[in-house]
Amino acid sequence: MAGTAVRRRLTWQVATVVAVNDETATVRTIELAAADWAGHRAGQHLDVRLTAEDGYTAERSYSIASAPGEPVTITVQRLDDGEVSPYLTTELRAGDELEMRGPIGGYFVWDADHTSPLLLAAGGSGIVPLRSILRHRARSGATAPVRLLYSVRSLPDVIYRTEIDGLADGVSVTYALTRQQPPGWTGHRGRVDAGQLEDVAWPAGRDPVAYVCGPTAFVETIAEGLVGLGYLPHQVKTERFGGPGGP
Amino acid sequence: MSPVSRGFHGRRSDEAAAPGRVPPGQYVTHDFPVLSAGPTPHVPTGAWTFSIRKAGAVLKSWTWQEMRALPADTVTVDVHCVTRWSKLDTRWEGVSVDTLLEQAGAEAAYVLAFSDGGYTTNLPIADVTGGQAWVAFGYEGGPLEPEHGGPARLLVPHLYFWKSAKWVRGLELLERDEPGFWETYGYHMYGDPWREQRYAGD
Hints:
By secondary structure, chain A is α/β, with parallel strands linked by helices. Chain A has five helices and twelve strands. Chain B is globular.
């Protein structure tokens, strides 16, 4: 688990909202423009700070949804009891300003020169940093084969649906619909179990690397399942809601 | 000068409910979120040891039974995660690091806590002594669950919670400060939540 990241100071800067795009009923993608963005690696996150008129501030971390080299975008899931996500997903509009700093995190990252087979496992909005990896792979012409396992309540809850269904060139996609399936659905139903995971995961003998992101129960199930299939701990990188990319 | 976020009012109920107890940039949660970089290790207590090492030598080691036979404290503390949640009035049971260092009979300026799974984190010795740090194996009256760091984790509540290493297996005594796992990836070397020392340079 040795790290190689460069330590440098992260300063707050003002970013302008370039565009917002509603992905689902509760999820919005926000494109940001900042004058001094040093670039990011696929899988990293950033911090957002909002300021009320009386100076009160609130900060949160969000995974970066775009690939390195693309405009910085985040994708935010609205939490009904949240303080920041309801604002970002309903009130915020193009032309607004907010503060951000980053990129943050250096462990849950993937670089285009990595050749190991990739298992990407997402629960709900855990797809966001994995989408950055998928876009980076496509844009860079990398050839690491990918299996994407995306667990979500129902098809209308799938984020980036069109983009994911258009993936080709060595990417296979498996949806697991946990709550509601359309008529005639022949794919996975319910929460992913060890047997279903074995169907999707690369055999440990292929020297794969897994990136697992989602709610805690999903991450625990998948990570433990992969260890049970022979993956070593360093081959299973995890990230959970409440703390993208961080401790 | 921060720009005002049009239409943002904020909730700000946390500071009102617990004045002086929520560090800047934090919000209070009543859940107990789980954060870790990899799979949860499951080490049976029969195979568990805790070691204090210096310069490659083991100065003192305890089995699980030996650790549990030491005098333990029950403490109620607030914990603050760098990802911005704070959890107030959490109750832990554990052995003071003072007791362990005293039995090991060694001095140093810094420690590097090490854990199953390869995780490490660095702390000044002054922050793990004086009744400020524990090897904790009990949480809210029961055993500490594996996903929260069981069988035992370090508990250093006055610093951001990544310093409270889960699945801790020992302390390496050092004369110079060395970055641990998250510190290498840009997180702050010290991590004081009241000074918002989240990342390097904060």
